[in-house]
Amino acid sequence: MAILKLELYAKTMRRTVTAAAVVPAESLKPGQRCACLYLLHGVQGSYINWLTATNLFRLLGQYNAAHEKKLAIVLPSGGNGFYHPAEGRKEDYERFVGEELPELTRAMLPLSSSREDTWIAGLSMGGYGALRTGLLYPEVFGFAGGLSSALLTQDMEGHCKENGAFFERPEFLQGIFGDLREAADSMHDVRTLSHQAKRLPKLYLACGRQDGLLDLTRGLHEDWQQSGIEHVYEEHDGGHDWAFWEWGLERILKLRGE
To answer: Which of 58, 182, 183, 204 is the S-S candidate for 145 at Cβ 3.0 to 4.6 Å?
Structure first.
């Protein structure tokens, strides 16, 4: 497999964005295009995290050795803004990930344009971002998966701390989600989006049993159960850490192969 570092000029971002792509180039027949999983990182992270902190390369190699339809993984750098538009800087991570990144990578790499072949997933902030992006762009993504998803809009009061880490402070959260009192009923909220969506991707939720965000994932799962929204939900031993996220990546690849 080839690991490519990409420097992409993005119109939606008005600047160059760094990403990586892991592509089974040697396994493809002439003219063959592969499926793609867009994999998002968490807060304070970058495109390199999934490559250095998990056995992504080995797991993807095992997957491609076992399946005729090959899979590539694209890893964009997404900043700290929960994959939202950043109006003050005119950077639109929402449109970048949901529209421009698939278009750019399909033009550069042997990727299928089929919705069923285009998946998105992520961890923590990226889990929230993947679920929200999949719901906003169901015509692009046939699957959206969240691992330890930071579904903060479901309980802003419990996750907004004056003296917390920068991503827990009111001024930071207000800059992303707006009025925090209205966030749970806004288009920032995954639950609200899922209820309003006319079309849904396949949905996947997973969280570690020792993770501080478990209650948020359980709450979304229970809401979807009661609302009849089809999804796969799993819990597994683990915290908010790379051991759990590697397990989650294995599970997503297993779902892809079924």
So the answer is: 204
